[in-house]
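To fix ideas, we now present one chain and its tokenised fold:
***
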Amino acid sequence: MLNLFRKKAVDFFSDEEKQWVVAAIQSAEHRTSGEIRVYIESKCRFVNPLDRALELFSHLNMQNTAQRNAVLVYVAMKDRQLAVFGDEGIHQKVGDAFWNNAVKEMLQHFNAANYAQGIANIVTQIGEALLQHFPYDAATDKNELPDDIVFGR
């Protein structure tokens, strides 16, 4: 059944900015077996954006990667909230300090209204961490998750 009252996803970035972020994801994943997803929405349904990131991580089936090395970058634009959530495989390697620093760096870019640049930069840093702990192996690696940006409502 067609839902005429369903809200359309808000588009926060230009086509060029979207391509920039997707290129950062693809570049990072080309060098590692890890997976990176970016999810952007207007408002966070929870008080804590990390809780929303965890919910989306599960909804996007990111926990199903073979080495449990997927990372979600979550941003609620209008609420000005964000979180970076890494699955247990990568989290065991980098720990809380890495994720906290990632959020701090994104906030610096966001405070200067450089949203796409902040996301692309953090994706690159996540890619470097994944490369260090989960290097690419041409014989066994496959792209387990889509590389596109997911836009919620």
Q: What stands out?
A: The mean pLDDT is 92.
